[in-house]
């Protein structure tokens, strides 16, 4: 898999700092699971966190802090969790326990279906899947808020080029583009969006120029 | 019982320890020999700094203290997953503290980070990192961070140390969101030679 479209460096820095809401962190982690080069960049960024921590002043710990820690040390080790093979990258498996085949799609428009992925806590952002049939327009545009789109299957094309499996679209919010799903398999994307705009609202806006609504 | 005074702020990296007691060696001793004394030394070196980082999030003293405990308990339990290819010990400790911070303060799951760690470990990516270089790497990146413009330093620190999302940084600093991102990009461009050079 050759990744052509990468996340914005500023987004990767926010991921490395731990400052992304979970839907965005999930999209970036899934992308990175598919991108060795991306993982290397994030590993470099971790050194920024390390250097900043190293340069922190010493806050005074309580007198008993070391004793308290030593008293808790047991034999327990945290191992790399075992996991079963799946057609989705590991960071996405928690959200898709039955894989892509187990997704319950909701029809959202001609050739377009979506599925919301649950992520536990209330937040201002949403994590969802978007499925677009070949030749159909992908209803996601810069309508406010950050939006990350990762291609899991198929491809789409817009003025930035062809986005295929593993590619991520991480545009500034004011960027306008009109992606069309490429011929072949349905294009399936993992999307993190600001929750303030509902997807239906976004879809209607996307269709406005077509139907004049 | 342990010879290191916990509230003794004179203990700086490299002072008072034999030369081979660099953080990477200590961490590998925790991993290999389950060396409690090595963990105690790491705790003395970095515990006060981890606490300082936690206090920046507005945590009260007791919570920050608990977070330090949790961080080093995780260091103890996960040390065998550390390898020198993963970078400096302090960077690895940062990621553990960061993941706990996500869990505790942002009230979100750190699962995407844990899953990605699993992918990284399982893919066993090659790296030419050498232990002897790690201190130099941290020193070089620290210097490079200080050579950034004050505006760039501010956004980097607010992101990595204060755990602020871009939108919150924009609000706090009083600049557009796009400017936050461009400052971070420029900062990374300046740091990149140092970060990539170390491999």
Query: Which value, in Å, is the CA radius of gyration of chain A?
Result: 20 Å
End-to-end C-alpha gap of chain A: 40 Å
Q: Low-confidence runs of chain A (pLDDT<50, min 5 residues)? A: 208-213
The tally of helices of chain B reads: 9
Domain ChrR-like cupin (chain A): 102-192
InterPro entries (chain A): Anti-sigma_ChrR, Anti_sigma_zinc_sf, ChrR-like_cupin_dom, RmlC-like_jellyroll, RmlC_Cupin_sf
Pfam families (chain A): Cupin_7
Organism (chain A): Devosia soli
Describe, in plain words, how this protein is organized in 3D.
The complex is a heterodimer of chains A (213) and B (199). Chain A has 6 helices and 9 strands. With 213 residues, chain A is of the alpha+beta class. In chain A, α1 crosses α3 (36-54). The model of chain B is unreliable at 1-17 (pLDDT under 50). In chain B, 44% of the residues are buried. Chain B is 66% helix and 0% strand.
Which key terms come to mind for this protein?
heterodimer, A: 213 residues, alpha+beta, Jelly Rolls, 6 helices, disordered C terminus, B: 199 residues, Rna Polymerase Sigma Factor, Chain: A, 0% strand
SSE layout and pairings?
The complex is a heterodimer of chains A (213) and B (199).
Chain A: H1 9-17, H2 22-33, H3 36-54, H4 65-72, H5 90-93, E1 106-109, E2 112-117, E3 125-132, E4 147-153, E5 155-158, E6 161-164, E7 168-169, E8 180-181, E9 187-194, H6 199-211
Antiparallel strand pairs in A: 1-2, 2-3, 3-9, 4-7, 4-9, 5-6, 5-8
Helix pairs in contact in A: 1-3
Chain B: H1 23-33, H2 36-55, H3 61-78, H4 89-104, H5 111-123, H6 134-147, H7 150-160, H8 166-173, H9 177-197
Helix pairs in contact in B: 1-2, 2-3, 3-4, 6-9, 7-9, 8-9
Concise summary:
The complex is a heterodimer of chains A (213) and B (199). Chain A is an alpha+beta fold and 213 residues long.
């Amino acid at each position: 898999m050759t990744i052509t479209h990468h996340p914005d460096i500023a987004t990767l820095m926010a991921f490395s700092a731990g400052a992304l809401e979970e839907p965005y962190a999930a999209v970036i982690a899934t992308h990175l699971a598919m991108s060795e080069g991306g993982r290397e960049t994030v590993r470099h960024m971790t050194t920024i966190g390390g250097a900043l921590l190293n340069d922190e002043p010493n806050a005074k710990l309580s007198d008993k802090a070391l004793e308290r820690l030593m008293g808790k040390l047991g034999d327990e080790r945290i191992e790399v969790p075992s996991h079963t093979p799946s057609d989705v990258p590991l960071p996405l498996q928690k959200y898709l326990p039955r894989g892509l085949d187990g997704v319950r799609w909701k029809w959202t428009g001609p050739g377009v279906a979506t599925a919301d992925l649950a992520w536990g806590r209330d937040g201002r952002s949403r994590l969802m899947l978007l499925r677009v049939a070949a030749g159909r327009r992908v209803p996601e545009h810069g309508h406010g808020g950050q939006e990350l789109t990762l291609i899991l299957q198929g491809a789409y094309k817009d003025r930035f080029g062809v986005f295929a499996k593993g590619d991520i679209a991480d545009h500034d919010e004011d960027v306008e583009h009109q992606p069309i799903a490429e011929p072949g398999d349905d294009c399936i994307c993992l999307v993190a969006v600001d929750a303030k705009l509902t997807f239906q609202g976004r879809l209607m806006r996307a269709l406005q120029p077509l139907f004049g609504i | 019982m342990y010879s290191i005074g916990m509230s003794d702020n004179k203990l700086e990296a490299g002072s008072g320890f034999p030369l081979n007691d660099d953080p990477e060696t200590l961490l590998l001793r925790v991993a290999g020999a389950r060396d409690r004394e090595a963990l105690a030394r790491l705790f003395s070196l970095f515990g006060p700094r981890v606490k300082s980082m936690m206090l920046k999030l507005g945590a009260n003293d007791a919570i920050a203290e608990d977070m330090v405990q949790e961080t080093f308990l995780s260091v103890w339990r996960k040390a065998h997953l550390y390898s020198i290819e993963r970078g400096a010990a302090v960077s690895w400790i940062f990621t553990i503290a960061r993941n706990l911070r996500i869990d505790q303060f942002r009230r979100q799951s750190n699962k995407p980070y844990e899953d990605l760690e699993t992918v990284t470990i399982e893919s066993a990516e090659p790296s030419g990192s050498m232990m002897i270089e790690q201190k130099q790497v941290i020193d070089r990146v620290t210097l490079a961070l200080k050579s950034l413009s004050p505006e760039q330093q501010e956004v980097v620190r607010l992101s990595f140390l204060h755990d602020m999302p871009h939108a919150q940084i924009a609000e706090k600093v009083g600049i557009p969101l796009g400017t936050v991102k461009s400052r971070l990009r420029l900062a990374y461009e300046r740091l990149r030679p140092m970060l990539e050079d170390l491999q």
